[in-house]
Write a structure and sequence with these properties.
The protein has five helices and three strands. With 123 residues, the protein is mainly α. Strands 1-3-2 form a three-stranded antiparallel sheet. Helix 1 crosses helix 2.
Length: 123
């Protein structure tokens, strides 16, 4: 008797994103509750929870039209989001290295004219 182990939350999120990226279509919740268990093995009970977490993280877009909610995510949006994140991180790295260089210069300026005694060296 082998027990089937359920999917982790991250695996469910990844598989849900695969549904959107492979089909490049717009879905309602009821459609996803039918498709996800068949194609990706996500239980129908957890589809809404996983979808809401993706919407909260900005990975899936949701729009209410009339009385229905429509969900979609396209690969190009994910690519652009990663590019923006990369640009932000690169700018933070450059700012950090600039700050480090400035602090290093101030340390060098502060050392000029000071005599290192034996007591200071031991600390």
């Amino acid at each position: 008797m082998s027990k089937k182990k359920g999917l982790s939350a991250e695996e469910k999120r990844t598989r849900m994103m695969e549904i959107f990226f492979e089909t490049k279509d717009v879905f309602q919740l009821k459609d996803l509750e039918k498709i996800a268990p068949k194609e990706k093995g996500i239980t129908a009970m957890s589809v809404k929870e996983v979808l809401q977490s993706l919407v909260d993280d900005g990975m899936v877009d949701c729009e209410r039209i009339g009385t229905s909610n429509y969900y979609w995510a396209f690969p190009s949006k994910a690519l652009h989001a990663r590019k923006r994140k990369l640009e932000v991180l690169e700018s933070q790295v450059s700012e950090g290295s600039q700050k480090q260089a400035n602090l290093q210069k101030s340390i060098e300026k502060a050392k000029i004219g000071r005599h290192e005694t034996v007591k200071q060296i031991k600390l």
